[in-house]
Amino acid sequence: MMKKTEIGATRRYAARSLIALAVAGAFPLQAALAQEAPVADAAPAQAGQLETVIVTAQRRAENIKDVPMAISTMKGEKLDTLTASGQDVRFMSGRSPSLNVESDFGRSFPRFYIRGLGNTDFDLNASQPVGLVYDDVVQESPMLKGFPVFDVEQIEVLRGPQGTLFGRNSPAGVIKFDSVKPGPKLEGYASAGFGKDGVVNLEGAYNLPLASDVSARISLQSQGRDDRVHNPRPTGTQNLEGYDDKAARVQVLYTPNKVFSALFNVHHREMNGSATLFRANIIKKGSNELVDGFDYGSYPTDGINEQWLRETGGSMRLRWDLDGVTLHSITGYESASFFSRADVDGGYGTASSPPSGPGFIPFSAETGDGLPDHRQFSQEFRAESSYKSPLQWIGGVYVFNEHITVDSNNYDTANNNQLVGFAQQQQVSKSWALFGSLNYAVSEQLKVRGGLRYTDDKKDFTASRTLGGALGPLTADPKSTNYSWDLSANYALNKDTNLYTRVATGYRAPSIQGRILFSDAISVAGAEKNLSVEAGVKQDFFDKRARLSASVFQYNVKDLQLTAGSGAVNQNRLVNAEKATGQGVELDFQAILSDELRMSVGGSYNDTEIKDPNLFVSPCGSGCTVTNPAGSVPGTVLINGNPLPRAPKWVGNFTLRYSKPVANGEFYALTDWAYRGTYNMFVYEAKEYKAKSLLEGGLRLGYKWEDGKYEVAAYARNITNKVQVIAAIDFNNLTGIVNDPRTFGVQLKANF
After folding, report:
1. Per-residue pLDDT at 38 exceeds 80
2. Chain center to CA of 560
3. What is the DSSP letter of 50?
4. For the chain, what is the mean pLDDT?
């Protein structure tokens, strides 16, 4: 039972938190170009306190409480829990406020959405408004964004435009992955997991000091699963959804003196497996329910299903700590090759060529997309102040160059799956930017920041069809320039509570959709620009036993790039909506409830809307129940007022951890839950293509001993075994994609 004094303190803390949030919502925007001084080394957390979280969201190491923007992090046991079953990067979906991650390609080509902003385009040349940075190198191609998460120190989710310090194609936000770096000690770890359907999840790292000034770290991961879906018919691929996914990273750190350091990184991935299964007629007409008798393990098909990905990259990060200034050089190179082939109609035969099914198959569709050539080079030079002064600064230059070739293939399932159509895209992208940022400490309580970035973009694009009706070459060469900026202020109400406000702009370069396998035209979307305002509070309370981060935001996107389907044709086209708006609230809360219990709660509300009264698109060609009004052009619908696609209004997560000393170790039980609300799968609205809300939970029971040196755990994911439609193909029949069913297994880990 709590004492009266404790109850009074609790009430005062709660009242202070509510007042702080209200003040943050009304805190005036500051118009000064400034930024605060570098943070001092964070003091270690005392027993029973939450640890201080250090982030590099503003390209400096800072206490997360002092950074005036909405940020969430993932690390340590949380990552171990979410990745135990061999899940790919989509495990992040819903684990941070306003974050959604999905894919129509399976373990490759993830698509990220923050605060409702994302891109549903399935073309391998697609751009996204969420930037992804892995070890300080921007990963531009969708094929690079699915690199496995292993031996990672921390993941940072930066919500809102990041155009000043991270550049183009980040108007929605940025996700940063930072690998564990080499250190001076001989140490490492090994982890082995085994689960349902033959899941094997192996991971390890070895840190090796090579000399007094040289150390290396080798990180490895191997994930695999047996085929768990089977084709009962004699035609097509017989066994599906297995995979073999291996990745490695080698880093070498050279520190000859206190002035200079060099960190070299080489990484590689090889993945072989199945493409996403598109399942014909699994959606009930007039609803978003699965048909009666749906069987996850059965997939009758006459098509070929395969997917593989090869990715190799490297980086060189150089640093000079000079008197009063620190210099950085970051050189990155990435390359990838990829191929994915799937039965897009999701069944066998056609109505005119029986037998066919399941359900009505109007025509067959089997396609494959490849990336035979991809090369990306990036270079950043950055200087930052490192002296003690109220005024601090960062400035730099960035250069980016990318070459890609995309193949599109069409196969005839009625003729032994022969290749009957082939088209190819080639694109060269060049971009350069100048950027700068200032921090200024007006007082011990008030610190203001501001930044500016100039970007120049150019693309040279060619597309040709050489089989299935010669066409082309069709060309496009969009160019654009842009100024991105941000202004923010952080006010320390007291030693435990910070209020912040921020206004920022973001920019997405022009995009090209040239997948002309089934179309005679390419489409180009002009540059997209986002203006966002947010305010919030970050507070530690109960003697750092609890932590709150809350934000409110509103944004306006001009010339929003959208991906629209083409009715009954397996083709996308790009359009610019005149405007789109979004507004919402986000919350992150962690607490040590007792010596045995820890809890976290996160959530967000995002209200998005497309605002363009004249924008029309072609709806489904599959006989779905469209609810949008008809457009002036026959066969089209108006989408003005629709929410953004794949943008659930509600996202939430919850974790509860119980631990208790047992013998010479610790027993723990951890449950985690993620919820997301309904969303439109496409830019138009249809009853069949409105995803149902989804709640998925996990459970982990484990035991650690010898101060955490050894650990054994049992886990289960999607413990309620909730399976439902989460995405669809809309041009043929009521074809759906479902989420993963329940899985479970065991995991063992040893540190040395």
Report:
1. no
2. 19
3. P
4. 92
